[in-house]
Structure formats: C-alpha cells, structure tokens
Amino acid sequence: MQFLGHLNRLILLAEDDSDDQELLESAFGEIDPSWQVVCIPNGRKFVSYLDTIQDKDLPALLVLDYNIPELTGVEVVKELNNHSRYQEIPKIIWSTSSSPVFKAMSMELGAADYITKPNDVASFLTIAKYMLSFVKA
Q1: CB of 28 within 8 A of CB of 35?
Q2: Of the residues 48, 54, 94, 106, which has the fewest C-beta atoms closer than 10 A?
Q3: CB hemisphere CA count around 45 (13 angstroms)
Q4: Where are the domains positioned within the chain?
Q5: What is the Cβ-side half-sphere exposure of residue 71, based on CA atoms within 13 angstroms?
Q6: How far apart are CA 23 and CA 125, in angstroms?
Q7: Could you tell me whether strands 36-40 and 10-14 are parallel, antiparallel, or unpaired per DSSP bridges?
Q8: pLDDT in tens, 20-79
Q9: Residue 46 and residue 132: Cα distance in Å, rounded?
Q10: InterPro entries in the record, alphabetically (predicted)?
C-alpha cells in the first residue's frame, strides 16, 4: 500500500522507548519504505529540531509519546499551536495509558487522535496504517 501525494516523506517521532520506536519505524517501513522516520526522545529537543526544518521540508506527520522527557507530548502540541507553520501537520499522541482524561486533553489541544500503544507486535502495523491515514494527499 503506497501513500502518495505528500512530497516530503518524513515522519517525526517523539519517543523515548527504544522498543516502541523500533517497532513503529519497522511498521512504517513495511507499509511504504519511502517513509523516513526521525526519532527524537525528548520533547524540548523535538520542538528545537522541528524549528530548524525549512517550511518546504516540514514533516507529513508528527507522532508524540504522551510521556517523554522535558516536554510531554501534550506540551509539545501546546507549543506547536503557537506557530501557524505547524497547523496543517497532523499530530498524534500515543501512550501506554488508555486514560480518557489524557485522550480528552490531547484532543482539546488539537491532536488528530490519541492512540493507546499496542501490547502485541502485530498491532503496530495496523496502528501505523491508521496514523498514515491522517497524512493529507
């Protein structure tokens, strides 16, 4: 399955768990190997890195772990909401917690969705496909 249309094939991932990072990267690569995933394990460094990217090279998708160091995924979304250049990029929060409070807070701040991380490896592919469904063609 190819996801065509977005010129920049970049997904920026904020994740500090190396297992979750590897599983999600592998799933995106299996769906379409042209996707490049850049992982930054820290919220503050994630925002700093994103600020260095030129407008024409901005990522197609942002995936943010709810509980990453320095700035949580929700705090990153709040920060990005202050900049119009990031408004069109889908932001997905994912977490080991299935808390309805965390989900509501994430959605209120403008996350495209809040996803509970899977407990089994096979589900990463399904979740990655779902995440890519938010990428605008």
Answers
A1: yes
A2: 54
A3: 11
A4: 10-132
A5: 18
A6: 9
A7: parallel
A8: 999 999 999 999 999 999 999 999 999 999 999 998 899 999 999 999 999 999 999 999
A9: 20
A10: CheY-like_superfamily, Sig_transdc_resp-reg_receiver, TCS_response_regulator
Alpha-carbon distance of 63 to 43, in angstroms, equals: 11
CA 110 – CA 3 distance, rounded (Å): 23
Class of domain 10-132: alpha beta
Amino acid at 34: S
pLDDT at 4 over 50: no
**CB-neighbour burial class of residue 7 (10 A; exposed 0-12, middle 13-18, buried 19+):** exposed
Please say whether the beta carbons of 35 and 9 come within 8 A. Answer: yes
Structure tokens at 47: 């925002």
**Pairwise CA distance, residues 46 & 53, whole Å:** 11
How far apart are the C-alpha atoms of 39 and 10, rounded to whole Å?
11
Q: How many residues does the chain have?
A: 137
Rounded CA gap, 44 and 96, in Å?
A: 21
Distance between CA 137 and CA 120 in Å, rounded?
A: 30
